[in-house]
Amino acid sequence: MENFGTLTVYAYTSDARLPVEGARVTIRRSCDENAEILADAVTDRSGYIPPTRIPTSAPSQSQSPDQATPFTTVCIRISHPAYETEQTSGVQVFPNIITVQNFRMVPINPMYGDETLEFDTPEQNL
Questions:
Q1: Are 88 and 120 in contact, with CB atoms under 8 Å apart?
Q2: How many C-beta neighbours within 10 Å does residue 88 have?
Q3: For residue 109, which of 84, 85, 79 has the smallest C-alpha distance?
Q4: N- or C-end of the chain: fewer Cβ atoms within 10 A?
Q5: pTM here?
Q6: Strand order across the beta sheet in which 24-28 lies
Q7: pLDDT (tens digit, 9 = 90+) per residue, 64-95?
Q8: What's the CATH number where 14 sits?
C-alpha cells in the first residue's frame, strides 16, 4: 500500500499577503532539471494551487535511526512574469499530512530583471 502526503502552495505578495494569481508552480523530486516532475500547476485567484498528492514512505519504515526518514523531500519552483522566480529545495511532505508551502513573491526590479531566489529547507532531526 502506497502512502501519500498532500502538498499545496500559496503565492502572495507584500505584508498584506495579497494573492498572486497565474504563477506557475513545478514540484520535482529534486532541484535537478532532469528530476521527475510530480506536479505542474498554476495558482488560482486566491494564490493557491490544487492540493497535490506526493508519494511518501510509510510511517512504519521510520521507527529507528537506520531506517528511512518519515517524510519525502521535494523541490518547488514558482515563476510569474511580474515577480522574481523562486525555488525552494528540501520541502518536507509527511504521510497523511497536509503541507502548505508559502511563497512571498518579490516584484521584479526593472534594473536587474528576473533573478532566481533560491532557498533551502534544512532537514528535521527526527
A1: yes
A2: 20
A3: 84
A4: N
A5: 0.87
A6: 37-42, 24-28, 72-80, 83-93, 117-120
A7: 666 667 789 999 999 999 999 999 999 999 99
A8: 2.60.40.1120
